[in-house]
Amino acid sequence: MRLALIFDRHRPDTTGIYFERACRALGIPVDHWWFKDAERIPSGETLYLRIDHGDDYRPLPARLRPAVFYAIDTHLRHSWPKIHRMAPAYDLVCCAQPDAARRLKNGLWVPLGCDVELHAASSPGEAVWDVAFVGTEGGVPRKFYLQALRERYPNSRIGWAPHTELGAVYSHARVGFNYAVANDVNMRLFEVLCAGALLVTNRLAGDALERLGLRDRQHLATYRTPRELFELIDHFLAEPQQRRSIAAAGSAVARARHTYEHRLRHILSAARVSMPDNGEAAAAPSMQASVRLVPER
Questions:
Q1: Does residue 128 surpass a pLDDT of 90?
Q2: Does 77 reside within a domain?
Q3: Residue 297 has pLDDT above 50, yes or no
Q4: Which is nearest to 66 in space by CA: 262, 291, 273, 286?
């Protein structure tokens, strides 16, 4: 087995690096290619896995088969039409969001995940920050939430940090704040869980969290309004034992079931099901026929 990973490294924290690290962790030989060099990629690899990095969504050369696309920005209005148009050019399209996977004939839900080596602190200690958030201000309403958090909880760490420091930030926070845009099951959700802070995130439509094995007040806490957010944070700051218990349960689920190694195994399993050994790409499985992401317990 040898994989070709196709993604651009314009950012040091682009999702492709996590899949590259997962390949190495699993002992899978891998070659990385920038998309601009797609015509130079040799035929004969076991699988060609293209990772979304926010480009113009052109297909790979037709000779590179079997081909899988991992689509991340399906929740963004300017990206989804391009992804939808390009999907038939791939044998399988793995989508980070469940709604997108359901809308594609060859779609499979494969959420984002966490990297335990990077996202869990190497030397966890006592919490330093009341609330932590690593990222940009974003648009409305997230930037208003962040400003309100700064004012209400001055002992907080809110702002940008390198991806190599995410574990150090979140593991030293009591609460990790998340605001998902357009029901995005985003990276931050898994990063906070992995690090061991209590994840407080806005409630998502549908059952995505439940399908991931994550339940409100058992593994994380969800809010619908600013008032609910502040009430939750105030409550859990005042109840450290309950907060630590929920955070530990959430962290255990993330590390046991939602790493990028798990995601890569899932993609490879689905690819083997839909692509026979003779090299002729068969139709990828539908959502109904796909491998179940979260095993029943």
A1: yes
A2: yes
A3: no
A4: 273
Rounded CA gap, 144 and 225, in Å?
Answer: 12
- Residue from 91, 114, 36 nearest 267 by CA: 91
Asked if residue 268 is part of any domain, the answer here is yes
Confidence (pLDDT) at 49:
98
Q: Is the same domain home to 72 and 30?
A: yes
- Residues 31, 120 share a domain: no
Q: Is 127 helix (H, G, I), strand (E, B) or coil?
A: coil
The answer to whether residues 172 and 156 belong to one domain is yes
Residues 6+ apart with CB under 8 A from 198: 174, 175, 176, 220, 221, 236, 243, 244, 246, 247, 250
pLDDT digits (tens, 9 = 90+) for 232-250: 999 999 999 999 999 999 9
107 in a structural domain? yes
70 and 267 Cβ atoms separated by less than 8 Å: yes
Tokens 């390949």, residue? 23
Residue 178's domain is classified under what CATH number? Answer: 3.40.50.2000
Question: Does the pLDDT value for residue 130 go beyond 70?
Answer: yes
| Helices marked H in 50-176 | 80-86, 98-103, 116-119, 142-152, 166-171
CATH of the domain at 266: 3.40.50
Domains contained in the chain, number: 2
pLDDT at 126: 85
Q: pLDDT tier at 161 (50, 70, 90 boundaries)?
A: very high
Whether pTM > 0.85 for this model: the answer is: yes
Residue 196 domain boundaries:
116-257
- Output the pLDDT for position 124: 65
Euclidean distance between CA atoms 21 and 182, whole angstroms: 28
